[in-house]
Amino acid sequence: MPVHLPQPEPERRALPVHLPQPEPERPGAAVAAGRIHAHSGAVPDFESPAALAAGLADAGYLADEGLAMAGFLALRLHRPIFLEGDAGVGKTAFAAALAETAGVELIRLQCYEGLDASHALYDWDFARQVLHLRALESTGTAARGALSVEELEADLYHRRFLLARPLLRAIERAPCVLLVDEVDRADDEFEAYLLEVLADAAVTVPELGTITAEVPPVVVVTSNRTREVHDALKRRCLYHWVGHPTPERETAILRRRLPGLDERLAAQVAAATAHLRTLDLVKPPGVAEAIDWAAALRALAADTLTAGLADATLGVVLKVREDIELAAGTVGAR
Amino acid sequence: MLVEVAAKLRAAGLPVTPDRLAAFGEALDAAGVAHAYWAGRLTLCGSPDDIARYDAALLTGASPARGPSWQVRRLPERSLFRATMPPSAQAGGQDPVLSVRAADTEVLRHRDLATLSPAERAEALALLAQVALADITRAGRRHRPAGHGRVDRRRSVRAMLRAGGEPRPLLHQRRAPRPRRLVLLIDVSGSMSPYADALLRLAHAFTRHRPRWTETYTLGTRLTRLSPALRTRDPEVALREAGRLIPDWRGGTRLADGVAAFVRGDGHRGAARRAAVVVFSDGWESAEPARLGAAVAHLRRLAARTVWVSPHAGRPGFAPTAGGLAAVLPHVDALVAGHTVAALHAVLEEVRRA
Q1: CB-based contact (8 Å) between B15 and chain A?
Q2: Any chain A CB within 8 A of the CB of B291?
Q3: Are the Cβ atoms of B42 and A238 closer than 8 angstroms?
Q4: Interface ipTM above 0.95
Q5: CA distances from A55 to A175, A256, A303 (A)
Q6: Cα–Cα separations (whole angstroms), residue A212 to A39, A76, A170, A221, A236
Q7: CB contact at 8 A, B70 and B15
Q8: Which residues pair with B280 in a beta bridge?
Q9: Which residue among B23, B140, B273 sits closest to A79, beta carbon to beta carbon?
Q10: For residue range B288-342, what is the model confidence (pLDDT) as tens digits?
């Protein structure tokens, strides 16, 4: 599925400025548990859902009324958005477009089974810590007594040995859009610490202190509904079910996504996709498949979706053999 | 005004908790009253079902007490717990075990569930609840230390580092077990009715024991998801609630439609993936059996193990001749009898082999 990722802005790439710098003359500075405030700034405010929808449209995403309202309220109320819907209806693309519209970075956490804190939050870079120790040993710094044990430990648990995983990175780099993709794939224990992070937009590293975002990141959580996500998580979010778009909207989406696509062809693809969704299919096509289909037809330099062409390219939209057999011959102009 | 709306929505079955209500208020402030519909929908709903209830409650403003339309389709108070013995068994004439009034559990374990007296039935059901206590697991993605198995490189290297780089004995790891999802598809059509009550109780016991990892559906003329109803602690309350949800209790059979609906809906989305799927049905399919075969073949491609349980399979002289069963047989991992407590134990053994 084509996800448009925003171009990174160079000035935002630097490490968070408020984190402690190495200060060897103050022993234990990094160990002292203090609240560290991460990068500050603000997500631009939109005056109405319509204004946000217009902004999203500029970013190439045509949101319907409900989705625009969800995005607007998420920015206003600092609440996460919980998006559910079939695969390929544009949940992930919404987060990318929201980030681009707001002019902030998109940080993505793809969930999978077995995802744990060291992959989602942070991890210590053990190899580099050992390397650091070895380097100190070989230069004889420790042996000459230049570093006390406390200093050495503080040095080892310094921010530069901390690997920020997506959740911590989102808090350090806020304002940003944090996309927690397919949360239903992760184990339910993961939901528990996701909740903790979302509730106070803070991560506590025992050796370092609590890292808090001044502006909470805009959080978009998506789910394909393969399992019921715990209510405690949903309760804190704005819930929106993303459905398939109307043929008119889908035509507009295709034209927006594929510049130069003939309007008539776009309308035909949208109508054919809508028709496919009415069939009794194992996997009804989503918007992503419709875009792929239109792109394929554009690559074939077609100007009309004929029945023959539709059957020949059906594999772009339908990925299950039984579905293709069922749909063959029912699509396209006679 | 907010409180009135909240009361109406709560009556319609929406989870309108105070914090959700507070969020609704905030959303109204931020978006304006003109957008009240979306503000409410985004903050008060938590699933597609909730959205349907929300819309229904707002549209049929006049009768909030009626509840959503899908609940009143079938009237409640149909007791699932009823004596279903044939009169001959009640008389105890042909069954020698019954004549000595054997309450011995070992005997009870091997008695056909359809031929028990109410008192025996209660005992058998208690035994059945114990079946559900078994663990059903699969190998997880994570590892845990073990005496043998693959070499745990990370722990081995750390142990060597601790020893100052000296070689240490190798440490091993194995895949940590994770619960395997269990999907129960229970046929509640007329021909299965002597067993349906016991099977629903078994489903309740499983749901109570491992709520996250058990999904229960009933098959009849349509597919009904029972899992939420079965989470109630009290089996009687849970079964009554389940009975309210099942619109086709003791009706006809359209097995193929039910199985296909499960496979294409929740099953394809993830409920069946890596799961053990157990179908309790005698395979009496009134529509074309070929479709049932195709649906079960699809189910097997999704699931880790597909087990078909037919109560008749345990009877002497059984041959899978029922139209549906013959079509299904090539596509299931195992066909097991499920007419006694002991047989249901065997089903569990089959499930655990996944």
Answers
A1: yes
A2: no
A3: yes
A4: no
A5: 18, 14, 31
A6: 9, 19, 10, 20, 19
A7: no
A8: B186, B309
A9: B23
A10: 788 888 899 989 988 999 999 988 887 777 777 767 788 888 889 888 888 888 8
